[in-house]
Structure formats: C-alpha cells, structure tokens
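[step 3/7] inverse_fold.run input=structure_tokens len=296
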C-alpha cells in the first residue's frame, strides 16, 4: 500500500480547563525527522508523542504543532505563606501607625509590600492526568487523520504510476516490432555489402571469421536483453506497488534501472521510429520519478 510523504492532519479537544489543538504536516525527506513544536511545559511528553507518529510513518519531515489555550490556571498554583501572613495580621495596626499608612489599607497593598506572602508556582503537568490523557488523545487522532490523507494521496500516486507503466508496456511492444525490421534490414544491407566485396577480384575472406563478425554485428544491434530487463523492471514495479509495505526507495532504484535500459536502447538504434519511442519513454519515466520521490 502506497503512502505519500506529504500529508496533513488536525484535531482539537475542548474541555472546561483548556483547549488543545494539534496540527501535523509533513514534506519529503530522505529519512524520518519528527519535530514536536509546542509549549515548553510539554517537553516531558516529547518522546511519547513522537512514538505515536513513528508508529505509522517511516520517512519524511514531520512537524507536530501543539497549541494550548487555558481557561484558567491549569498549569499554575498559588502558595500562601500563612505564618508570615499571621505576623502581619497580629501587628497590622502597629505597622499602619509605624509606616504612616492610610487606615484604608487593603490586602493588595500588603502584598505589594511583601511579595513573599503569595507566590505563584508552576504545576508539574505530568501529574495532571486529564491534561496528559488529552494531549495523547489529541495527537493520536490528529495522527490518524494525517495517515488517512497520506494513504489517499498514495492511492492517487499508485493509480497514476500504474497508468504510466501500461503506457511504457505499449511502447515497448511497438519498439519490439520496429526493432525486428531494423535488425533484418541491417543484416540484409550487410549481406549485400559482403556480396559486392566477394565479386571483386583477388578478394580472400576467412569464412569462419566472417560468420563471427556477422554474429557480433547483429548482437551489437540487438536490444532483446534490454527489452527483457525493462519488462522485468515493470513487473517488479507493479508488485512493489501492490505490496502492503510502502517502499519509495525500491521504486526509486527501479526508476534508475529503467532509465538506464532505455538509454541503452536509444544508443544502440539508429532508427528514427525507435528514437521517437525512446524520447516518449524517457518523458514518462521522468514523470514517474517525480511521483516516486513523494512516496514513503
């Protein structure tokens, strides 16, 4: 089953304490590179969240964006120094008189004098079970949507590649028909040339060597081996496309081999018809290469 390396998935969880939104997107990359981009308070979950992504993705640069909107101080807590506050309480009148403070003194005024009374402290979110579960659930569901899009794009790529493979197969059949006529024409031309030489006086030829040279010449013109290998590459290409495990690297290698065989056929043939077929094949193979570059 083919999976595209590019994809996007999103999911949002809303509750009374906070909203969590996760966006996952990926682009082509030779290897797998997963980056979690969110608040620093989520660092303790980094490895767990990456495992969710890597369980279904093997190649590509994947960015996971996590946005958290608080509906309260879900990650903060207040610590009150009650001992210090009692001291102020018991000596409040003396303090007001000594400091010459207005008797309409408010608690907020007291806090501004001594910030040690009330301290804010960041909560360890790893102990917040609702928060941890919500983050994991949100990333998991976004990852599922992300995978669904990759599979859909992969299906489209697979369909397009199969069409192009059929186009190549049709052209190869045309080349086979033309190649037989080309080889026969070249052999006949060679025979005529030899006959002309033999009619000349004082010409002596080693018949065994002549036969060997003719065989060598015809083998040099033959593209049978290249055709056989091309057909084999196409069959293997189709098999890999149908496999359950996506393998962009294998397909990329086959594209290189198909291109090599096509170039060899082009270099062996002086036929204009075959040259035109080769140009068409190279164009199709290049389009296939561009598609394969996007396969995981």
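[step 3/7] decode complete -> sequence:
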């Amino acid at each position: 089953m083919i999976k595209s390396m590019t994809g996007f998935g999103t999911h949002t969880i809303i509750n009374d304490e906070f909203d969590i939104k996760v966006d996952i997107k990926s682009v082509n990359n030779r290897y797998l590179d997963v980056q979690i981009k969110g608040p620093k308070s989520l660092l303790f979950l980094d490895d767990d969240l990456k495992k969710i992504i890597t369980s279904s993705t093997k190649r590509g640069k994947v960015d996971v964006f996590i946005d958290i909107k608080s509906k309260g101080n879900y990650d903060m807590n207040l610590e009150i120094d009650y001992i210090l506050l009692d001291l102020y309480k018991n000596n409040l009148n003396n303090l007001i008189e000594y400091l010459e403070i207005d008797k309409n003194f408010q608690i907020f005024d007291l806090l501004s004098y001594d910030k040690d009374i009330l301290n804010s402290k960041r909560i360890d979110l790893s102990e917040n079970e609702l928060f941890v579960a919500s983050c994991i659930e949100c990333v998991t569901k976004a990852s599922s949507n992300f995978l669904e899009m990759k599979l859909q794009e992969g299906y489209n790529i697979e369909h397009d590649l199969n069409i192009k493979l059929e186009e190549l197969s049709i052209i190869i059949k045309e080349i086979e028909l033309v190649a037989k006529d080309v080889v026969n024409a070249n052999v006949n031309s060679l025979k005529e040339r030899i006959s002309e030489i033999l009619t000349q006086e004082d010409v002596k030829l080693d018949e065994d060597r002549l036969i060997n040279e003719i065989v060598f010449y015809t083998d040099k013109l033959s593209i049978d081996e290249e055709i056989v290998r091309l057909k084999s590459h196409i069959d293997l290409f189709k098999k890999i496309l149908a496999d359950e495990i996506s393998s962009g690297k294998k397909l990329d290698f086959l594209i290189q081999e198909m291109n090599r065989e096509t170039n060899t056929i082009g270099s062996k043939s002086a036929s204009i018809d075959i040259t035109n077929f080769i140009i068409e094949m190279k164009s199709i193979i290049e389009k296939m290469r561009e598609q394969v570059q996007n396969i995981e």
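[step 4/7] annotate
The radius of gyration is 38 Å.
The chain has three domains: 7-72+128-151, 76-122, 153-292.
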